[in-house]
Design a protein that fits this description.
It is a single chain. The chain is mainly alpha-helical. The chain is 53% helix and 5% strand. Helix 2 (30-46) links the parallel strand 1 (24-26) and strand 2. The radius of gyration is 16 Å and the shape is globular.
């Protein structure tokens, strides 16, 4: 909440809206699941949406940075990783009306 308020103030952007919370580096660990529950509770409090499409942990993301490539063009990126990212990108695009 603080960072959005700071951005509005610093850049005189009262029209800033939260498109949604993205869960990334997602795992099924107990701690990760508890964190997601807490974040969703906070999001409800501020009436912020979150994306159902999540980005799971994958070494392909760090490899894509090293290769200076998109995840779609990263060598050895699994289809499940690229499919998951594509699903999120499409949901994000719909949300912000691209």
């Amino acid at each position: 909440m603080e960072s959005t308020n700071e951005f509005r103030r610093d850049y005189n952007r009262s029209d800033l809206k939260v498109a949604g919370i993205v869960f990334n580096i997602v795992t099924n660990s107990r701690e990760a699941m508890a964190s997601k529950r807490e974040i969703k509770a906070l999001a409800r409090q501020y009436e912020w949406p979150w994306f159902e499409e999540e980005i799971s942990f994958s070494d392909s993301y760090t490899r894509s940075v090293r290769e200076i490539s998109s995840i779609m063009d990263t060598r050895y990126a699994r289809a499940s990783t690229t499919d998951e990212f594509r699903a999120f990108a499409e949901a994000f695009s719909r949300t912000i009306s691209l």
